[in-house]
Design a protein that fits this description.
about 120 residues, alpha+beta, Glutaredoxin, 4-stranded mixed beta sheet, 6 helices, globular
């Protein structure tokens, strides 16, 4: 099964992750998060499949996150508000995101990805 690799091509972490996928001969399809922004429904599904709290899906080191002063808002906003925010701009979403069937992992830590693809 081909994995869906959602990334931002200029992101160094995404570039490392893509290199790792290729080195480990993992078949994947790429999607640029800034061109093809995830929908609210996509995000709700991925968050549920990941088992992580919605707050983990925010790119907290991103310029947009900081410009919008989201640090405190993310702690108190409703799930609906947070989904709307994430769906409004792909740069707010932590990346890369890998979807493999019904499983989802975000960010790139080599040891986590090894376990994810075993």
């Amino acid at each position: 099964m081909k994995s869906l690799f959602i990334q931002y091509p200029k992101c160094g972490t995404c570039q490392k992750a893509a290199k790792w996928l290729k080195a480990n001969q993992i078949d994947f399809e790429q999607r640029d998060i800034t061109i093809d922004n995830p929908t609210r429904e996509d995000l709700a599904t991925w968050i549920a499949q990941s088992g992580l709290p919605i707050q983990k899906f925010f790119n907290t080191s991103g310029v947009l996150y900081k410009e919008m002063n989201l640090k405190d808002r993310v702690k108190t906003a409703s799930t609906d508000e947070l989904l709307d925010l994430l769906a409004s701009n792909g740069k707010l979403v932590k990346r890369p995101v890998i979807i493999n069937g019904e499983r989802v992992i975000i960010g790139f830590k080599e040891e986590d990805w090894k376990a994810f693809f075993e």
